[in-house]
Amino acid sequence: MIRSRPHATSTWPRVLRWPVALIVAGSALFAVPTAASGQAGIGGQAGASGQTAARPPAGDPVVVSLGDSYISGTGGRWAGNSDDFLFDRGGTDRAWSRVEGELLGGSDRSEIYGRTAKTGCYRSDSSAINSAVGTSGLGLGRPVNLACSGAHAANVLRASEGGVGLHGEKPQNDQLAALARTSRVKLVVLSIGGNDLSFPDLVFRCIRAYTLRDDPCRAEQQKRLDVALPAMGAAVGAVLDDVRATLAGAGYADGDYQLILQSYPSPLPTAKEDKYEGYSRIFKWTGGRCPFTDPDMTWTANTVTPTIAGTLARTASRHGAQFLDLGNAFDGHELCADGTTHPKGDPNSTDVEWVRFVDYTGQGDYAESLHPNFYGQQAIGICIARAAALHRDATCTGTPEQGLRGVRVTAR
């Protein structure tokens, strides 16, 4: 099945925090020491005091993820979506287990998210950076996931630059600074900006429009996005500068590591690519759990995702970062996409959705809704690994009905 859509670049941030319907819901000043200040410059020159500049440590090489829920791994518990509420939910609930000999089992989210299941960062075992190293063979070092569900740009900035911690943790760049002094940072991948656009409110309003049979949300929300995008771009640019400054403070020159800013994959297909097209409207609510009007689905896929990605691409260019366009990374595997199924057991990446459905029934955690699931996170990991190998701006595209083997990365 061939799909045509304007090439998207994406965005769906966040922590999704849902009340009865849902609410979805991840900057910096550049300050490089100079020889004039009595400290050595980035290039390793001696300062006025005659001391030699610090250099990157000779410790173990690491690749690092920073930012929000789309890279922390929220949603990684689920290997597809299932209508089954019992036991392992049709094989999709990776947190479910049963002791041999016992009749009933249970789900323990810490099996997937570790201690962050309780703190709220939701860093999964299949997060994009873990998948980039594990399933995709990124040979740059061990993965370190510092991203946190719900993060805004200010949660990445160092405290000295106005950043604030989240869920009891220090700002992410302060954590990066400590890591960079003991381990050799080879790659930093950042996903941020969606929460700065207040996407929780946008998604809630779109779901409300569907539920209450109101007019589509797109007209009202497009105006709000147009106003908010410039500030989001500036905030993300500040984060990129602060990543550079953080690593410069640990003795790194810009050429000592790669810095990638990724966009967001579209979680929804266009209305024409929706498998419930032509069905009674109730099917999208009870069966697909994708409660969005047809105009809003198409708007999300063809306008919101590429518009936000365009802002991120320009920001990456202005601040010296590599850009990874994930807009169509889930092509053919978005929520309710034509050709996908709800498995009854033994799910696989070929014919399931790569996005967690809107879980308003309590099968799992509302905060996981509309996030990349186990397969979606592996797909992003493949995108990261192949983009890192290109050493230039890249576009990642999925292929309907081909699963993870159909993920393609090309230079932009």
From TrEMBL:
Gene3D superfamilies (alphabetical):
SGNH hydrolase (3.40.50.1110)
Record's superkingdom? Bacteria
- Transmembrane portions of the chain: none
- Please identify the protein, giving its name as recorded: SGNH hydrolase-type esterase domain-containing protein
Name the lineage.
Bacteria, Bacillati, Actinomycetota, Actinomycetes, Kineosporiales
